[in-house]
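Quick check before the chapter quiz. The format below is the same one you will see on the exam, so make sure you can read both the input and the output lines.
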Amino acid sequence: MSDEICDKQSQITDRTSHIALVYLGVDMKKPLKGIRVLDLSQILAGPYCSMILADMGAEVIKVERPGRGDDTRAFGPPFIEGESAYFLSINRNKKSITVNFKRDKGKEIIHRLIKKSDILLENFRPGTLDKIGLGYKDIEKINPQIIYASISGFGQTGPERLRPGYDLTVQGMGGIMSLTGDPSGPPYKVGTSISDILAGIYACQGILLALIARNKNGKGQRVDVSMLDCQVSLLTYQAGIYFATGLVPERRGNQHPTISPYETFKASDEYINIAIGNDKLWQKFCDLLGLKEIKDDPKFSSNPKRVENRDELFSIIEKIIREKKANEWLKLFDEKGIPAGPILSVDKVLNHPQVQAREMVVKVNHPKAEEIKLTGIPVKLSATPGSIDKPPPLLGEHNDEVLSNILGYSKEEIKSLKKEGVI
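Here is the expected output.
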């Protein structure tokens, strides 16, 4: 039989299987339906990763410490009916169980769950889980198909591997802070925990790639994500500038190092961003602002020359932009197709019609905090979309469900584990 015929036969089989599952009532709407994640992570990077997986249909079992839980349950204020707003923001669609896996009976629970899981996610310092028999080499023996995802500050290898990884210190070490802030002022971190969040996104990408590989070869593998590596990946053209010139990029405030004008200007009332990304836009921009005298001036007519003479150009444009209010300018720019936009505060972003239309703010009913708002799902799939179905769990809310339904523990055994402080 030819390869072409085999491929067609395989496609027919796949389609037939899909139709059969739909006919039987199996929910095929979410792409990760049927995938189980054992989530040993806490704080932000790991939980952000598992939230993405849960939104897309994975069953995420979040393992927390008995009586205390994820550290972020205590991060605050603010709290809503005793529930941390921080924790609520990144733990929807998950199940929570409490297990002290440093105890033998707790470790047994984890081992039994590993046999029934597709993915293990953790963000302990490298070597920590190896000491208690839950490292990758140990887990691989229990379940060779497991995808074991580790997020750490500096990765599983290298001279800095054991260094603790916190968002602020990694932003500083990854070059981002050296590029952020006013040139005459101190360095600034990004206003959100970008090192943690980006590591969570990359870990999700790594897990999905490992799932694809496993579908082909039937084997699991380790996914090693370093927060520092993720920050280095963001340097892109800034690294390119250094590689090309040997010169170290410096803070430029809101200026772009290779495009001009592409920065922030003060209108008569508020700041706005203007992004003139090519020479055609420059021509339109000059016509709108009445800058005919510099439109074709050799000092400004091409982007490289505008970058070279950016300080002089900024002074010219700044004076004109100050003559009108921000909304007046933005309306004119929109009419002429010139990229520009306001600088919105968090409240204005979350109430913006475009953000609302894209369902990037959703409401969920919580057992304690009642109706809460969460940010939505940024990846929109046309055929198999994700959804936010369950609120962030209460601590240990799913102990009985997971232990009895998945692992087969009896009611008496569960009571005994609670009494012994194992769960």
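If your answer matched, good. The two ends are 56 Å apart (CA to CA).
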